[in-house]
Amino acid sequence: MCQRWRLPWRLLPAAAVLLGAISPVHAAEITSMEGFQGMPLVYPKFMVDNLWILIAAALVFVMHLGFATLESGLTRQKNTVNILFKNVFIICAGILTYALTGFNTMYPGDFNGFLAILGPIGFSEEVASLTAAYADYTYWADFIFQAMFAATAATIVSGAVAERVKLNGFMIYAAVLVAFCYPVAGSWKWGGGWLDAMGFHDFAGSSIVHAFGGFSALAAVLVLGPRLGKYTPDGRVRPILGHSMPLATIGVFLLWLGWFGFNGGSVLSADPAAVSLVFVTTSLAAAAGGLASIFTSMAYLKKPDITMALNGILAGLVGITAGADTVTWTGAILIGLIAGVIVVFSIVLIDRLRVDDPVGAISVHGVCGVWGTVAVGLFSTSPGHTVGVQIAGTLSYALFAFVVSFVLATAVKHTLGLRVSAEEEDEGLDLGEHGQPAYADFQYIAN
Predict the structure, then answer these.
(1) At what angle do helices 245-264 and 306-321 cross, to 10 degrees?
(2) Helix (H) or strand (E) holding 11
(3) Are 329 and 336 in contact (CB under 8 A)?
(4) How many angstroms separate the CA atoms of 329 and 306, rounded?
(5) What are the backbone angles phi and psi of residue 2, rounded to the nearest 5°?
(6) Which of 30-44, 77-91, 160-174, 207-221 has the lowest mean pLDDT?
(7) Are the CB atoms for 193 and 114 separated by under 8 Å?
(8) More exposed terminus of the chain, fewer Cβ within 10 Å: N or C?
(9) Cα–Cα–Cα angle for 195, 197, 203, nearest 5°?
């Protein structure tokens, strides 16, 4: 004899939503359970919105694994442990510093719009006690979602300075960048600052996160200098190949997966129409960027380069991030296609200018972040989004990031030191900095 299944009365509104009997909005409007044995009400819309924000935060967290595998794959095996260690440090330091100072600096409430520094340390218990009165999600869900974004800026720099940066110097640099510099810039738009007042639009951070990280990386690379042997005395560029294309490919697919949380979570609700649109525009731009970079590299470099294909996917993702909520599906494809072409020529040009970026972070995140932000003014379905305001906003982020990163990297260089010795660099940072090889059964090859 089978047992009868009974639906708990408290879950009736949620079940009705799932079965299509009522919409989430109507379910949330029910204010009592009269007739349902006086059981307390649950709010399906609030619960679903909050759950989606938390799932999105988890997806963005997975992106840090993607960055770790991508960066280690595109660099030499003798530096793998160092790459992984930096990524472990960045996510840990990023979450803690964002809890202590970053969150309240980036979202300060009423302020002058330009400089929000050191809001209340930690969390406001008064605000944290609010649930539905705070937003469509809890205070805690808001924090953890934004914290996952914060560490990304320093992770972008990590790849660009790989294979020659001194560990303790980088740790100080990254911690300060995440704790103070990124939240100040983020407050200009997402915290209700001066760019928000101008009508600047950056949905999920093509400029606020990616261009900030890319131009921070450019400044740090200029202070640090190129890897030994990268450029010959006669001006030729000497390729230094990454040691694991499988790792790099895994990293890009993890990043693509995480981007569904990065962009999809930025809807800040589980609104079905908005989240669905963002998923589609995000994927179309990524796919278009990948194909554009594949065919551009085949035509220009005469070979189908897997690293260009991978960076093309990322370029499309970075490019669509600013306008994923406000462009059509055809606009998303065009944004991705152009980003995929731009990234190939940008990587080649930056290398020829003797700016050594082992993973292409400056081009992918910096250059394509600027393109994606400007593209909002060209492809947005909203007449309020103009090219002029978009250019002003993205250049503000690029300039601010470059200046603060240059000052910070220079200060670290002249105090703790920013670069390892030539002997350590030749031996590999895994042994020189950590005394631990990544692949214990294999002998390291210097180049």
Answers:
(1) 10
(2) none
(3) no
(4) 26
(5) -85, 150
(6) 30-44
(7) yes
(8) N
(9) 60
Q: How far is CA 402 from the centre of its chain?
A: 17
Note the Cα 30 to chain centre separation in Å.
38
Alpha-carbon distances, residue 74 vs 285, 358, 390 (angstroms): 23, 7, 32
Task: Extract the runs of DSSP E, i.e. beta strands, from 320-359.
Answer: none
Closest CA to 152 of 248, 229, 216: 216
Q: How far apart are CA 380 and CA 376, in angstroms?
A: 5
Q: Which of 21-30, 138-147, 152-161, 279-288 has the lowest mean pLDDT?
A: 21-30
For 25, 88, 101, 410, 439, the CA distances from 143, given in Å and listed in that order, are 25, 20, 12, 32, 37
Please give the Cα distance from 411 to 73 (Å, whole number).
Answer: 30
Alpha helices in 74-166 (DSSP H): 80-97, 103-106, 125-128, 139-160
Assess contact for 123 and 198: CB atoms under 8 A. no
Amino acid occupying residue 202: D
- Indicate the helix (H) or strand (E) that contains 45: helix 44-73
Residue 252 pLDDT: 98
CA-closest candidate to residue 72, choices 359, 443, 434: 359
Which residues contact residue 161 at a Cβ distance below 8 angstroms, ignoring those fewer than 6 apart?
170, 217, 220, 221, 224
User: Which DSSP state fits 188?
Assistant: T
Q: Give the integer Cα–Cα distance in Å for 364 and 369.
A: 7
- Which pTM value belongs to this model? 0.88
Mean pLDDT across the chain: 88
Residue whose structure tokens are 């990297």: 409
Q: How many helices and strands in the chain, by DSSP H and E?
A: 20, 0
Residue 121 clears pLDDT 90, i.e. is over it: no
